[in-house]
Amino acid sequence: GENVEQHPSTLSVQEGDSAVIKCTYSDSASNYFPWYKQELGKRPQLIIDIRSNVGEKKDQRIAVTLNKTAKHFSLHITETQPEDSAVYFCAASSGYSTLTFGKGTMLLVSP
Amino acid sequence: GAVVSQHPSRVICKSGTSVKIECRSLDFQATTMFWYRQFPKQSLMLMATSNEGSKATYEQGVEKDKFLINHASLTLSTLTVTSAHPEDSSFYICSTGGGGASEQFFGPGTRLTVL
Known about the structure:
Number of strands of chain A: 11
Oligomer: heterodimer
Order of helices and strands of chain A: EEEEEEEEEEE
Distance between the termini of chain B: 37 Å
Helix content of chain A: under 10%
Radius of gyration of chain B: 13 Å
Shape of chain B: globular
Strand content of chain B: over 45%
Largest sheet of chain B: 7 strands, mixed
């Protein structure tokens, strides 16, 4: 089955700095890579996703890059704000909507 | 996107009792729903895939006789934790989505505490 590794497990940045979270996956058949933001006690919220036919996608301060050859994808958040503080999960899907999640990254943005 | 609700949001029960959690897809006909469990400071772990009108598919290591799943309609899936024990205390989240590689829509989750 699919295995998704995510790093780092925690990330502390100053407000305004950039944050980068990296994930690798094992199944070359995976073709959908979403990123979720989860605040404490709440449901995961999709913040951006990318499919295997695209190498990069951007939405305002958030971008995701995908390297299919190396089987890794990354989340980039620029101009971080305190409200970006949360746990971020990457995921990969190789079949009918079955997602395998990474272990998560706790992002702390200090004012 | 699809709107998914869960009930109850929180439940506290005594060890040995059973607890039923409902997951509803309010505006989307969900032939498939997914149940996840999330322990504190950990990731979401898929427990089972709930299929409308047929048996659920359980992930390895998940006891199907302990975690009963019923998906009797296109809008409702239920997860019953039978004979709950303190180690079953967790955050249970359901989700649904479209076919193929597509976005998952998560319910708000149910916090289960077993005393």
